[in-house]
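Onboarding guide, step 5: your first structure request.
Type a short instruction followed by the sequence, for example:

Predict the 3D structure of this protein.
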Amino acid sequence: MKALFLLLTGVVLSLSGMAQVIKVRPPEPIMDSIIYQTENVTLIFDRKHLTEYMTGMDSTLRNSKYSNKVFNSVQFAHLNAIDMGNHFRKAYCYLEDTANKDFSYSTGKMNMLWAEDGGIMLPYVEEIMPDLLAGGEVRVIDRSTKAVQPAYKMIAEPVDGNNYRVFRLNSGREIFRESTFRVEQLTRR
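The system replies with structure tokens like these:
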């Protein structure tokens, strides 16, 4: 019994050692925020991150002849080059229009890929979310306590030979699972 207890303790300690703790950067004023709400948390980040990403992707997509393989998003897996180019340009124009303020997303709400509102930006938001979370660029608010989280954990999740990131609150509740948005496309290739 004692050996079993020591073995279980060792397993728990080794699993907890695999998680990387991400400390959120000190909050800066966010002039124009994007809100992404999940079952457990509300994530808030500055619109400038999405703008910088889209600006960089503009030339990358042109150089790759608008191939959908530039993105890891499952939602783009079925688009041909013409559709990918049209979707990106439509989303880019929506983002660049400063009159558009509809940048609030919820995993409990369905968004159409070709939406005429801010929903058109959702695949791009989900594309950059893991990198922003890994960099501590996102304000994470626990929905149950309404408290801003100063830190959270990043865990590697192996799926079909690829590692994906899972972000969790220190309580263990999930913030964001990268494989939810990426695995299906990778199995298609």
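Each response can be followed by summary notes, for example: The first strand starts at residue 20 and ends at 23.
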